[in-house]
Amino acid sequence: GRLPGLRVKYVFLVWLGVLAGSWLAYVHYSSYAELCRGHVCRVVICDQYHKGIISGSLCQDLCSLQQVEWRTCLSSVPGQQVYSGLWQGREVTIKCGLEESLSLKAGADVAPRRELVLFDKPTRGTSIKEFREMTLSFLKANLGDLPSLPALVGQVLLMADFNKDSRVSLAEAKSVWALLQRNEFLLLLSLQGKGHASPLLGHCGDLYVTEGVPRSSGPAAALPALLRPLLPPALHGALQQWLGPAWPWRAKIAIGLLEFVEELFHGAYGTFYMCETTLANVGYTAKYDFRMADLQQVAPEAAVRRFLRGRHCERSADCTYGRDCRAPCDTLLRQCKGDLVQPNLAKVCELLRHYLLPGAPAGLRAELGRQLRTCATLSGLASQVEAHHSLVLSHLKTLLWKEISNTKYT
């Protein structure tokens, strides 16, 4: 007598499973279609290349010889297209900015509008001297008036002259100027040779490629893609400990992250602020050397100050650049101040508390926890903590290095 009832229950559960699966597949497809529009990037870039408007070391292989292979879509926002790929026999990351105005609905009007927006400078008749001054002025506005900027301008001009003919054509100048408008490209150029940002390999217009695809340290990175949306966030951290790198490897990655924070603090091209401090941006190579996975939310001090200074506010939350670069609000004047409240190191140490303490060696856990807590509570204006900042950072690096030195993990 129970069989018909059981059959109904099973049929209902199967129907519910099919419905849930179909809904997940639809959501996944919709998200993928919106986020992954690399084909639009290729069409637009190659259209501009064939018209002679842009150029670059990647253009011929990308647009004429079809020797750039686009693989997995890694985009997190529609406006920044990111793909893993293969070029000249090496693994690369392909990055292409896609403005919101260049939606799939734009149709035939896509290329002309992009040409006007991105590739309108410099104009015809600009001399190399004028372009040098134009680039220097742009870098001063974005990085500050630093004595090291002429050397960076030299790097820009060398990159523009990719064919090494000792001249910069209009197409080359338009391409490198468009690249400079990309925040991450400007930072990659500033941090080249430091070892914690992926090396630039080539470009075409404002599309560029960097070396490899850093593995993410985020909790979701260790999970199969199909399982990530199905599991609650509370389980992600535990699974990261089981499936992620062993603790000594995590310590090595953490040391690299701390060195990166040092590079951002009064480096050759000024100070930079990390304005989205999450594990998703902490990447590493096959040898567990730290690589910053995403520089989109690392901003020059000059740009952050320009954004915040004089901005209307009612409370401190109104004085936020990016996700977590926050300045005080002057409640009397109702204007944001230019200095940030929390330095890079404090935000990174809060991140490392969740990344390093689980699974840490028993003899190290108490001291490591104490130092990370001290570090995470660093406060005061970011520009006023230099001495304490350096001391705390040095102690942390020494503590971690002593634990893994003279082992296979170094």
Automatic annotation (TrEMBL):
<keyword id="KW-0735">Signal-anchor</keyword>
<keyword id="KW-1133">Transmembrane helix</keyword>
<dbReference type="InterPro" id="IPR029244">
    <property type="entry name" value="FAM69_N"/>
</dbReference>
<dbReference type="Pfam" id="PF12260">
    <property type="entry name" value="PIP49_C"/>
</dbReference>
<keyword id="KW-1015">Disulfide bond</keyword>
<keyword id="KW-0812">Transmembrane</keyword>
<feature type="domain" description="FAM69 N-terminal">
    <location>
        <begin position="1"/>
        <end position="159"/>
    </location>
</feature>
<dbReference type="InterPro" id="IPR022049">
    <property type="entry name" value="FAM69_kinase_dom"/>
</dbReference>
<comment type="similarity">
    <text>Belongs to the DIPK family.</text>
</comment>
<feature type="transmembrane region" description="Helical">
    <location>
        <begin position="12"/>
        <end position="29"/>
    </location>
</feature>
<protein>
    <recommendedName>
        <fullName>FAM69 N-terminal domain-containing protein</fullName>
    </recommendedName>
</protein>
<keyword id="KW-0472">Membrane</keyword>
<dbReference type="GO" id="GO:0005789">
    <property type="term" value="C:endoplasmic reticulum membrane"/>
</dbReference>
<dbReference type="Pfam" id="PF14875">
    <property type="entry name" value="PIP49_N"/>
</dbReference>
<keyword id="KW-0256">Endoplasmic reticulum</keyword>
